Amino acid sequence: xxxxxxxxxxxxxxxxxxxxxxxxxxxxxxxxxxxxxxxxxxxxxxxxxxxxxxxxxxxxxxxxxxxxxxxxxxxxxxxxxxxxxxxxxxxxxxxxxxxxxxxxxxxxxxxxxxxxxxxxxxxxxxxxxxxxxxxxxxxxxxxxxxxxxxxxxxxxxxxxxxxxxxxxxxxxxxxxxxxxxxxxxxxxxxxxxxxxxxxxxxxxxxxxxxxxxxxxxxxxxxxxxxxxxxxxxxxxxxxxxxxxxxxxxxxxxxxxxxxxxxxxxxxxxxxxxxxxxxxxxxxxxxxxxxxxxxxxxxxxxxxxxxxxxxxxxxxxxxxxxxxxxxxxxxxxxxxxxxxxxxxxxxxxxxxxxxxxxxxxxxxxxxxxxxxxxxxxxxxxxxxxxxxxxxxxxxxxxxxxxxxxxxxxxxxxxxxxxxxxxxxxxxxxxxxxxxxxxxxxxxxxxxxxxxxxxxxxx
Length: 457
Hints:
Elements lengths: L1 E7 L3 H12 L5 E4 L14 H10 L2 H6 L4 E2 L1 E5 L6 E5 L1 E3 L5 E3 L2 E2 L3 H14 L3 E4 L1 E7 L5 E7 L5 E11 L6 H4 L6 E17 L16 E7 L2 E7 L4 E9 H7 L3 H8 L5 H6 L4 E2 L4 E10 L3 E2 L2 E3 L5 E2 L7 H20 L11 H23 L1 H9 L3 H9 L11 H9 L37 H8 L2
Parallel strand pairs: 1-2, 1-12, 2-9, 4-14, 12-20
Antiparallel strand pairs: 3-8, 4-5, 6-7, 10-11, 11-12, 13-16, 13-17, 13-18, 14-15, 15-16, 18-21, 19-20
Helix pairs in contact: 1-4, 1-9, 2-9, 10-11, 10-13
């Protein structure tokens, strides 16, 4: 089997990439190992994520599914005494802020809709699992060996491989990319479930709109999310250090039910009569970065190369925007441009990395100096932070802004991009110097896989 572009993973990033390629006359193959619908976390969208969907022409489908309309993000501070609000917004041609809305989604439904749209528009969906990356003599990625559901193996040859495998980080684990660094997030874990009966706000727009995303902060590394995913069901998550759960000696469900109301008084008010729709799920909450996530014949997109603190719901925005940003570079490569470069997609790689660095710096300042951050939201940098929360964090969007530069100064941090080895160095508040040796090819410290196994609940 042969194709110009092979996409590993049919989630929102892979499906968006396929639809953008189809608009350019290319018909990619999407290799997806799971049958949809399937449960997935990460339901809240930024304003720029909604803009991507509108450019893809799926706004009608979003309305037809009656996804909750999100007007902004409200954050309750320690003790529930104070809150601040960031509205969803857009920028017009004059770079003036304008009101906007986005959506929150039930991912099992949304992801299936996106994949269906990609297939209806001409993408070929192949069910199976990528097992081995195929490499040419010069190290160029030329496709994958896949395993069909019945156990048969087959090679799919490609000119460009897009790794949209998410946290599976297919090419990273295949060591096609540079090394993968896993930070510990101070060994936090996340408990989450879908519930009914949670109390929402009653407004129709603005700060108190019924379907806004809400974040509840207790103290450093202790927080919860509240995301409406349809008219009745709300996604609620609880994130704490792993040690807190181990000390409790409870099942995940017992811990979730008991500790959730303790996070914040306003959250306690909202969950007095709620009921679980399904089981409480648990995942280790960790960060990672993959170095040199683009190269000869391949590009990693979204979580396939980087995952930072999920507190402000940038995941969907980052993966779909990176998919769109990659398209012109793919088209140039298919025309034969930069084929012999050591990294034909170096420009795209640096562009994406700088954007996520801006996000990381913002999130880190929130954790390190939450009161200063709240002041900046209300006063000094409100417009710039509205941009950041909307997902406008890339160089073409006046970034890094003065707000981000101030955050770096307060964090005593520098970002240098003069040399390939300067970029993508994990120096955020989750950075653990003792694990920096993971970047070394001959490292003797524990592997990413060993650390994750140790961190599992």
